[in-house]
Structures are given as C-alpha cells and as structure tokens.
Write a structure and sequence with these properties.
By secondary structure, the chain is mainly α. Helices cover 68% and strands 3% of the residues. The chain starts with 5 loop residues before the first helix and ends with a helix. The relative contact order is 0.04. It comes from Hevea brasiliensis (Para rubber tree).
Amino acid sequence: MPDKNVVSWTSMVSAYAKHGLVELARQNFDQMPVKNVISWNAMISCYVQGGQCREALDLFHEMNNLRVKPDEATLLSILSACSQIDMFAKCGTLKFALDVFNKMPNKNLVSWNAIIGALALHGCGPEAIKHFEKMQAEGIWPDEITFTGLLSACSHSGLVDTGRHYFDKMSSVYGIVHEIEHYACMVDLLGRGGLLDEAISLIRGMPMKPDIVIWGALLGACRIHGNVEMGKQILKQLLESEPYSSGVYVLVSNLYSEVGRWQDMKNIRKLMNYHEIIKCRAISSVEVEGYVYEFMVDDKRLEVSSNVFSILDQLTDHMKSIAYFCNISSLCSETSEV
C-alpha cells in the first residue's frame, strides 16, 4: 500500500469531521508528517462544526505561530467562532464568551463589538467600558455598532453620566452620526434613571421621527416610575403610528396595573378586543436528552403538562409556607385573557 500523502491525510481528517468524530480527526491531524493550509482549515472547521470554538482558536493561534499563512477559508471558520461569543452570551454563559474572546489571537472590530455587546447584555457596564478603552489602545477604531453596545451597557448598569459622555463623544470625537438605535439606548438610559423630562427633550430634538422602540422605552420607564399621565400621552403618540401593535396596549395595561388602576387596565383590554388585537404568546424552548421541547404560558399541549402543573402547585404551596410574597400586579396583567 503506497504511503499516504498530504491530500490523503487531509481527506481523512475531513471525513472524520463530517461524521462528528472530532477526536479521531485530531489524531489523524497530529500524525500528519506534512501539513498545508488546507489541512489546518479542515481541522479548524471540524472544531467549529463541533461547537468547540475555543479549540478552534487555539489551533488557529498555533497555526500562526508556525507561520502558516491563513486563507479565506481559515478566516471564515474563525469568523464562525466569533459568532459563538454572541451565542454564549445570549445563552447566559458569559464566562464562555469571555474565554472565546480572550483566546482569539487576532481580534478585529467584529470580535470587540461582539464582546462589548455580550457584556452589555449581562449588565456588566464597567467591564464593557474597560473593553471599549482597551480596544482603542490596541488601535481598533469604534463604529456605530460599538456605540450601540456601549450605550446599552451604560443603560443596563445605570451609568447615566457615563452614557451621556459617550453619546456626546460619538459625533464630536469619533465623527459618528447618531442613529435611531443610539437614541433608543439613551432614552432607555435616562428613563431607567427617572429622568423622564430629559428623555422627552432628547426625543423632541431627534433629527428623525421616533419609532415604537423609542416610545416603548419611555413607556417602560413610565411603568417603572409610576408616571401614568406621561404614559397616557405616549399611548396617544403610539396609537397614531402603531394602532395595531399589541405590545403598545400591553405596556400601557401593565402601567395601569403597576399603580393599581384596575379599571383602566380592563378598559385597555376591552379596547384590544374591540379592535381584534391579539397578543402573540412567546414560545420558549429547552433541550432535554437530545429532544427540543417548546412551551408557552398556560400550555397544556405537552404530555407531561399534568406533571409540570403538579410541581408548580407544590412550589406555590412551598412559597406560601415560607411567607414569600411577590408583586402580582404585572402578573395579573400578563396572564389576563386577551
């Protein structure tokens, strides 16, 4: 039998990768007497396809150390690994997202934006700011996406003054035009901080027409701070631009329930019924032993529903026994029949 050449070795790595046999692929890769860029790409791609993005980045780093020049296929695989920063963050595993980011040998604007957005999502404002400053120290110039993540991080961490500072610097220092996403972040930031009048002034000074995201952010702030009168004014604005948006009605209904105005809440629900506006129920998914289950509020479709509701009843009884109390106003609003 003739000796295997680099093409044969690489074909075996690719074949193992195709069938998800990552360990065997790596064994063959390590045994290769000679490797070319295609061989490296095959193994990196194998790791990425198997969800082992940290291993993929380690191998990419090793490839660079050996002065093997990457090509478009290499970079495409590494870009897929970058996207996993976002995936880990949205799945609640910020530590894994940071691990992936820290192992990246060559960080570009996309990877910096991904980690700043991940930190923002988890309310880690100070850490997001540190990464923003470190990014610039490494010679990476921010773009409009960077500032969306940065302002969102300030909002979720209550850093009002810091958010104002970076919002102003966007145009004065970085020459980036404020877009509606940046205004939405600022309205949310000011609203959460109770600065509703300042938020209104910012909206009035916008160069573009405010959309439902802008008004929705302010309406959410009205709910937090119990400002019903401003909420009613915002409702009028929203109904003119989004008359059939169920989210608008639900936000106002929740605002009324938050301050105990039950009749007004019922009137909003009646108005929804009159206009035949239906709030679509959100669907959640969970994977258990390789099978994905989907469920929603008061869902009785699953075969295990009776067991689930039985456990919920037990939990409710337990909470009562330890004198646990929660704010039921919004729960009443959310679970009401539309």
